[in-house]
Amino acid sequence: MIHRHALGRLPAKPHTAFYEDGKLLMEHAHTREGFDGPFSLLYYRTPPTDESAVEGLTIPGFCPFEPLADQPLHRRHLKTPDLALTGDFLEARRTLLFNSDLHIGMVKPSATSPRFLANGDGDEMYFVYRGAGRFETLFGVLPFREHDYVHIPRATPYRIHFEGDPPEFMVFEGRGFIDIPKEYRNRSGQITMYAPFTHRDFRVPESLLLYDQSCHGMAPFPLAVKREDRLSVHLHEHFPYELVGWDGFAYPFAFNIHDYQPKTGLVHLPPTIHTNFAGNEFVICSFVPRKVDYAKGAIPCPYGHASVHMDEILFYVEGNFTSRKGIDTGSISLHPAGIPHGPHPGTYQASIGTERTSELAVMCDCYKPLRLTTAARQIEQQDYHLTWVEREGK
Ligand SMILES: [Fe+2]
What we know:
Elements: E1 5-8, E2 19-20, E3 23-24, E4 26-31, E5 39-44, E6 51-57, E7 76-79, E8 93-98, E9 102-107, E10 116-119, E11 123-130, E12 133-137, E13 140-144, E14 148-152, E15 158-161, E16 168-174, E17 178-179, E18 202-203, H1 213-216, E19 221-227, E20 230-236, E21 243-248, E22 253-256, E23 275-279, E24 282-287, E25 290-291, E26 311-318, E27 331-335, H2 347-350, E28 356-357, E29 360-366, E30 371-372, H3 374-377
Parallel strand pairs: 10-19
Antiparallel strand pairs: 1-21, 2-3, 4-5, 5-21, 6-20, 7-27, 8-9, 8-30, 9-16, 11-14, 11-16, 12-13, 12-15, 14-22, 17-23, 18-22, 19-20, 23-24, 24-29, 25-28, 26-27, 26-29
The chain binds fe (ii) ion.
Fe (ii) ion binds near residues 305, 312, 335 and 341.
């Protein structure tokens, strides 16, 4: 949903007869918000409706996940490196935090498999914590590399393929939508010169997906569909993702966080200056290595704050995390609305005079309170909220 894109062959006009080798092709309209939102038109060799069976599928911790029953209000620290998972990108997925607008989880696959997923609950934004490979999607092949964001629009069939070291992902599921903020577009839909990225920074599928028996197996071809946090597996008699062509605005894209162009000021700017994507009642922000505030006497470390309407999570990717002690790469901190938070003791003073930060982190601010799941509880540092206390001799 960055600009119009097209792949393969198309008829001159939508909704008109279109043939391949004398066979009438099936046009398929992939529409959002009924028929009012962005859409794409796809041309199938085999209609995607030839399912021969439907089965249930349960992946505990993902579909369904288990909310933590009792969650006292305090700051949280989740250590995702402690999350030991195996299996393909479905089996190795866990939801850690959620509200009615947003689910946040981790995906740590140890293997690839032929099955596809279509998430009917929302748009997904993957962040590639480690690894490389490709997303194979209905709209074509989208390679990924370390520190990419990969956006998968709601109900897009896709699978994750990798060779070599297994990748690791953080994943946001936006129940309404995930897109670039509308403030970054002009009235023609073009990304403005004030935005922290340009059209050229977004990568889109460059080739259609072709059936390959070694990757995709034999019929029946399984598609897992997620709806209301339940999975159903639809078995197709024909490989349904080899298209003749498509065009439109709904399709996956990738954006590498290192292409984000950060803004800094004379004195510290609020963290949402680093907004990268927006959803319904939440934003996703990118903190990348950058020069810091440059006025004489400026304090580059974030001020303590009570953002009284929003919960805040930070995913620490790499670099020197100046504001927090005990946080490491792969950590997720949750600082909920209702109580103040800020830098750990000592870090505020130590930041004065520094000229650069090497931190690489993904932040998400959301209006509705985030709840933990039992999977999150298993990787939680229990006393994190007490670590701001300065004791004598320490
Ligand atoms: Fe904060």
